[in-house]
Amino acid sequence: MSNRERRLRTVDLARAAGLSTQQVRNYEDAGVLPPAGRTDAGYRVFGERHRDALLTYRALQPGYGAVTATRVMRAVHAGDVAGALALVDAAHAALHEERVSLRAAGEALEALAGRDAAAPPDRSGDGPHEPDGRHGPHGPRGLRIGEVAALVGVRTSALRVWEEAGLLVPGRERGTGYRVYGPSDVRDARVVRALRRSHHLFDHIRPVLGDLRRAGSSEALRAAVEARGRALTARTRSMLAGAGALHAYLE
Q: b or e along 152-169 (b: 16 or more beta carbons within 10 Å of the residue's beta carbon)?
């Protein structure tokens, strides 16, 4: 620390960042702050650089998370600025992947909405009609793979590939072991076909199907997608603010 630099106590840093003095000590020990000087009595002595580091870390936290923010600051203080920026790049790349999955979910909802709009009106009063198989001697059995392929407009080999990739999970008929597809399996196959036509990878489609199954309906998924979209926008803004603070700190 320069002799002309204003000295700050642990409590001064704590007040500046809205933390406890113990948290400030913990951050120094963790490498979030540069090493502090010591008085003859062993008390920590901080300066403006430490305050700037602490405020930078606090700015990084909302967008990048505590773990990545800590790793970034440690790298900076170890002199590895390139490594710190690589961590920032990786966080932005992960956010981009989340946006791709979110866009896939939106496209899946559009495909489902288009299919529902084109479906003939249901006369039973139970909602849109979806062929869900014939009745056998032991109750309803689902559709066979050839029937689903014809409904969705793909080859049976495509359905098998999607099943091997974990995108479809049809049941099996007792005794014969034949695949049987229920209404939700047909819906999932339609979603996969729509997203594959948009060139989405299996890794992007898999979380969309997981969300749809958890939500239980396209309406619930639509609400979840909108909420995720708002959360991603807020996180992006937080990351921009954090990156700006890091840039200023590096300067």
A: bebeeebbebbbeeebbe
**What confidence tens digit (pLDDT) does each residue in 183-218 have?**
989 989 988 998 888 888 898 888 888 888 888 777
The tokens for 91 are 């966080």
CA distance 74 to 20: 21
Tokens of 168: 């479809």
| CA distance linking residue 113 with residue 103, whole number of Å | 15
Cβ atoms 101, 211 nearer than 8 A: no
The DSSP call for residue 165 is T
The closest alpha carbon to 212, from 223, 201, 199, 200, belongs to: 223
Q: Round to whole Å and give the CA distance between 78 and 31.
A: 9
pLDDT tens-place string over residues 1-44: 555 557 888 888 889 888 888 998 888 989 999 988 888 887 88
**Distance of alpha carbon 217 from alpha carbon 145, whole angstroms:** 23
Alpha carbon dihedral 42, 48, 50, 52, in 10-degree steps, equals 160
- Give the contacts of 132 (CB within 8 A, at least 6 positions apart): 140, 142, 143, 182, 183, 186
pLDDT, one tens digit per residue, over 138-175 is 334 689 999 999 999 999 999 999 999 999 999 998 88
Model pLDDT, residue 96: 92
245 in Cβ contact with 55 (< 8 Å): yes
Total number of residues shown for the chain: 251
Structure tokens at 237: 């803004």
Q: Tokens representing 181?
A: 């597809």
**CA 107, 90, 24, 14: dihedral to nearest 10 degrees?**
-50
**Partners of 135 in the beta sheet?**
140
